[in-house]
Amino acid sequence: MLILGLQIDKLNRVFFNEELEVVAQNFRTFLYCKTVSIKYLIGTVLYRKTSYIRSSGSGVVQSKGRFLTCITCIVLIVGAIRSPVAIGAPQNIITSYGTIAYSPISKGLPKTITWADGQMEAIDIHGASIELNGKSYPFVSWAFHWLPVSNWAGNSISGLQTVLPQLSVIGIRAVKLYIPGDDLPSSGVNYNMLGQALDLLYQNKMWIYIIQDNQGRSNWTIDKQSLYATPAVIDFVCQKSTWANMVFAWSPENELEDWMATNNFTWTSNQLRIHVTWVHDALKAYLSQSAIGDIPVTFPMCAGYQIDPNSGENNCKILVDASDIPDFHCYRKSLADLNASIDGWYAYSNPTRRGWWSGECNWHRDVIAAKGGICSWEYIQTMLTKNCSAIFIYALEQGINPDGSPTYPGTVVMLDAIRSFYNS
């Protein structure tokens, strides 16, 4: 009771004179379906950086404040337990997005892991530059879609068993792993196999950049279920310390600027800014309280730049500003086109102050067959020389068959080039 009383007193100082509905809204951000964690509730309260509206007052006023705080706590806890709803942003994103600030509880980077063979290794990121055991190690690898959208279909586990050792032996140390954004671990089937896949990635010493693709955008209503499945997936990954330790970055959305253009800019630039800022802070807060820790959060984009016809703002710069590390997907028809698009992106979005990653890259789909199915090493080298430190070719299950054989002639050339790059 003494501990509870102390916590309530702290809550009073933090939340005194703040609207109850805003407090409740911020808490509900961290609570979802079947796993209501009081640890997250209390941790979020204690670390929420809210300016004190009133630091002193009469005993009567303070007493009322403490009483209000007690009522607030009861409402929040009971409401969280009695209302098993999925995490979601308020539907009116302009007026109802609550401010979420975070302060790391568990350390993120550098992260240390002991691999299955006993080797200890640490990963750290400075700007966008990646280091393994203190030495620069640019990631050149593949992006991989998990079920149910993988081209490998029912062969995903056997495919990874065959392909991952091939990638590891030539120096590849990371994958970008796509997890369907509208799928929950409670669905069972996909996540049982995902656990097997994570074990295989661990056995082959693969660091993981997770992206939850297009979650909450069913029926093109992104504001209804932002971060829908994210807490459940984070909790799933944290079931094993080995899984949690492998994850070095997380993306909660994919190519939002492309979604805006597809939907004729029914969202404004200001709505986009509010949305990604809220999602970034909510995800960072949840990650920082998990075994994964305070890792970079990104918002990948595929346009070199995109000017909103209504406001004149550059939506790509909004995504860059909201990202801990900018992620620019490169799909171009030629090296000249690639150079021009990166230079244009630099001019409009200014990622150069911290470097950048390319979570997807390949030839443009209009020329992919004619050019051998996989972008050339010169394509990769162009990005490396322009300060890109993590490059993920799109996509593993399209370029390599489950039996390890190449899907395209360009796959063999690329694998040889990557081997030479890491051996040089």
Based on DSSP secondary structure assignment, what is the total number of beta strands?
A: 11
The description of the largest β-sheet is: 7 strands, parallel
> Helix count?
15
Under CATH, the topology of the largest domain can be stated as TIM Barrel
CATH top level of the largest domain is Alpha Beta
Q: What form results from the Cα inertia axes?
A: globular
Summary keywords:
single chain, 424 residues, TIM Barrel, seven-stranded parallel β-sheet, 11 strands, 14% strand, globular
Please explain how this structure is put together:
By secondary structure, the chain is an alpha/beta fold. It folds into 2 domains: 2-82, no CATH class; 111-423, TIM Barrel (Alpha-Beta Barrel), CATH 3.20.20.80. The chain has 15 helices and 11 strands. The protein has helices at 2-15, 20-28, 38-47, 59-82, 156-169, 189-203, 230-237, 241-246, 256-262, 269-288, 315-322, 335-349, 377-385, 396-399, 409-423; strands at residues 111-114, 120-126, 129-132, 135-136, 139-145, 174-180, 207-213, 247-251, 330-332, 356-363, 388-394. It has a 7-stranded parallel beta sheet with strand order 8-7-6-5-11-10-9. Helix 2 packs parallel to helix 4, helix 10 packs parallel to helix 11 and helix 12 runs parallel beside helix 13. The radius of gyration is 23 Å and the shape is globular.
